[in-house]
Amino acid sequence: MTEALSLGERLNSVRVGIDTAARASDRSPDDISLIVVTKFHPEQLVRDLFALGVRDVGENRHQEAAEKSAACSDLSLRWHFIGQLQSNKARSALEYADVIHSVDRPSLVTALNRAWTETEPGRAPVDCFIQLNLTENPDRGGVSPANLESLTEMVSLSPALHLLGLMAVAPLDKDPAQAFEIVARESQRLREWVPEARFISTGMSHDYPEAIAAGATHLRIGSAITGNRPLRG
Ligand SMILES: *Cc1c(COP(=O)(O)O)cnc(C)c1O
């Protein structure tokens, strides 16, 4: 009981934080979606969050996402996949993911298209974000700004994917506000090519107020709500 209560309190304080940051930027809190990142936490935490009104959850490891979403299939939740996705997991990801935040390379788009054509005919395309890499390190995941235009074109022509916008993780060694300015600028470019792809998935436990100030519409918040993550096993 005490645990559920403190989970509720942490959730509430993040919701208040979102409200405050939105109002400070003259934005409506209703335009900002909170995705609670449940990675490394057990199924029960997802159930506790559901009981507290959470409907959007995020996972970053494929195996864990597949298992947890199956275990919670009785709850009507939207599952957001936010981690790096291997092309050979594309088919299975289409089975559980309502939104994929980490489309970042042509080979993954090709794999998602192939998997999608093999699933039931008439299936709606899956909502996705293109992930932008804000570091110089290609291992971090995400497409470089230089390759954003060609990847956007490929995604927008893809029958499997419905492009919502841009996703990014602020690098740890940079000022998040500056990082989110870059995302805002790249999002502007993206909308010149695909006007309806106007959403921005940025903002984690430690930088969501800055993300909101720079236009984030989807926040991916874990530890500020769930408490410390159990050590990965
Ligand atoms: C873990 C994770 C988050 C949430 O991080 P917190 O610092 O716990 O809020 C957000 N986005 C991605 C891609 C993650 O892997």
User: Which ligands accompany this protein?
Assistant: pyridoxal-5'-phosphate
User: Which sequence of SSEs, written as H and E, runs from N to C?
Assistant: HEHEHEHEHEHEHEHEH
Hey, roughly how much beta strand do the residues contain?
15-25%
Mean pLDDT: 95
Percent of residues in helical segments? Answer: 40-55%
The parts where pLDDT drops under 50 for at least 5 residues are none
Structural class: alpha/beta
Write a compact overview of the structure shown:
The protein is α/β, with parallel strands linked by helices and 233 residues long. The chain has helices at residues 2-24, 43-51, 62-71, 90-96, 106-118, 148-156, 176-193, 208-213, 223-226; strands at 33-37, 56-59, 78-81, 99-103, 126-132, 161-168, 199-201, 218-221. The chain has an 8-stranded parallel β-sheet.
Characterization of this structure:
With 233 residues, this protein is of the alpha/beta class. 42% of the residues lie in helices and 17% in strands. It has nine helices and eight strands. Strands 7-6-5-4-3-2-1-8 form an eight-stranded parallel β-sheet. α2 links the parallel β1 and β2.
